[in-house]
Amino acid sequence: MSSLEKKGRACLSRGMRDGRTHERKPPSPLIMSQGNSARILQLTLAVIKPDAIAHPVIFKAVHEKILLNKFLIVRRRFFYQRLVEFMSSGPMRAYILAHEDAIQLWRSLMGPTKVYRARNTEPESIRGMYGLTDTRNTTHGSDSLESANREITFFFPEFCVSHWYQQDEPHFRMGAVSYDSERQIHAVHRT
């Protein structure tokens, strides 16, 4: 395991304060924030697969669907085939998305894994509109909090989930962010 992987794993269960680490669990995404009726945002991993990246119109449509559904893009990364063996047919893009109930909402937008089912039961879903086969079905999304944390750590080893919940999540939840169209992510307004 690389030092970045170790840091990412340790960061999931430790908080940072004054340069020292303190044991801390990330907050449950279902806990109501104090003094506010807005629920704490949940993080999920979203992957746009090579079959969608290869077609700029499809990639743009999927990206716009993410934004139209009010997902906040916390991080994004472009991957090439040498980095991700199981998707070696071409480049892909990974996102960390934030939203109330992000995992379920992203899975709903993607639609069923089986493309034939997506086309018949949810034709407006991403997979219903753009999926080719069950493997080349355009997107991937985490199916639970545990897999989201594991997949985020794999694709973004430098990203610290607990730090994001402590430092950035309140800003994202309260709308103190803006979309940077050049970087294609949402960024916190720092004063």
TrEMBL record:
It catalyses: a 2'-deoxyribonucleoside 5'-diphosphate + ATP = a 2'-deoxyribonucleoside 5'-triphosphate + ADP. The keyword Oxidoreductase does not apply. Gene3D superfamilies: Nucleoside diphosphate kinase-like domain. Its cofactor is Mg(2+). PROSITE patterns: NDPK (PS00469), NDPK_LIKE (PS51374). ATP binds at residues 49, 79, 107, 113, 127, 137. GO terms for cellular component: mitochondrion. It comes from Geotrypetes seraphini (Gaboon caecilian). This is Nucleoside diphosphate kinase. The active site is at residue 140. The gene is NME6. The keyword Nucleotide-binding applies. Its EC number is 2.7.4.6. Belongs to the NDK family. It holds the Pfam family NDK. Keywords: ATP-binding, Kinase, Magnesium, Metal-binding, Nucleotide metabolism, Nucleotide-binding, Transferase. One of its GO terms (biological process) is negative regulation of cell growth. Residues 41-163 form the Nucleoside diphosphate kinase-like domain. Residues 1-31 are annotated as: Disordered. Residues 15-26 have a biased composition (Basic and acidic residues). GO terms for molecular function: ATP binding; metal ion binding; nucleoside diphosphate kinase activity.
